[in-house]
Amino acid sequence: MEEEIRSLPFECQECWYVWEEEYHVRHFDDRHGNEREIWLRSGVPVPPPSSGAICPKCGCQHATMFPAGYLSRHPELMSPAEPAPPDATPLLSPVQRRVYPL
Ligand SMILES: [Zn+2]
């Protein structure tokens, strides 16, 4: 039996919130030679995820699922967890604009 972790991104169609849910997927063969999967969240078996997940922000069920790994290719979709700290470096002088020859 193999177990893998899959992080699946979702996007809410109502408020455009983007989030990821982490699932453990167990693979095993049944006695007929078919490969089966069990999806677990926090150790609890759940149905395989599909579009229609519940948005954690607005609670609606109009979410779209992306393929696993989608957000790593589109990081701009994820809203940052915290705003970036302000840059403490004082600006001492106006930065000269560099002119690049065409
Ligand atoms: Zn929403």
Description:
The structure is a single chain. The protein is mainly beta. It is built from one helix and five strands, in the order E-E-E-E-E-H. A hairpin with a 5-residue loop joins strand 1 and strand 2. The longest helix is centred in the C-terminal third of the chain and has 4 residues, at 70-73. The mean pLDDT is 83. It binds zinc ion. This is C2H2-type domain-containing protein.
Which SSEs are present, and which pair or pack?
Elements: E1 2-12, E2 18-29, E3 35-41, E4 44-46, E5 63-65, H1 70-73
Antiparallel strand pairs: 1-2, 1-5, 2-3, 3-4
Bound molecules: zinc ion.
Keywords:
102 residues, 35% strand, binds zinc ion, C2H2-type domain-containing protein
Q: What structural category characterises the helix and strand content?
A: mainly beta
Q: Which segments are poorly predicted (pLDDT under 50) over 5 or more consecutive residues?
A: none
Shape: elongated
Indicate the percent of residues in helices: under 10%
How are the strands of the largest sheet arranged? Answer: 4-3-2-1-5
What is the strand tally?
5
Small molecules in complex: zinc ion
Question: What percentage of the residues does DSSP assign to strands (E)?
Answer: 35-45%
Supply the number of helical segments.
1
Amino- and carboxy-terminal Cα gap: 60 Å
Q: Work out the radius of gyration.
A: 21 Å
Could you describe the largest sheet, including whether it forms a barrel?
A: 5 strands, antiparallel
User: Could you state the order of secondary-structure elements as H and E?
Assistant: EEEEEH
Q: Roughly what is the average pLDDT, rounded to an integer? A: 83
Region (Disordered): 77-102
Protein name: C2H2-type domain-containing protein
Organism: Nonomuraea guangzhouensis
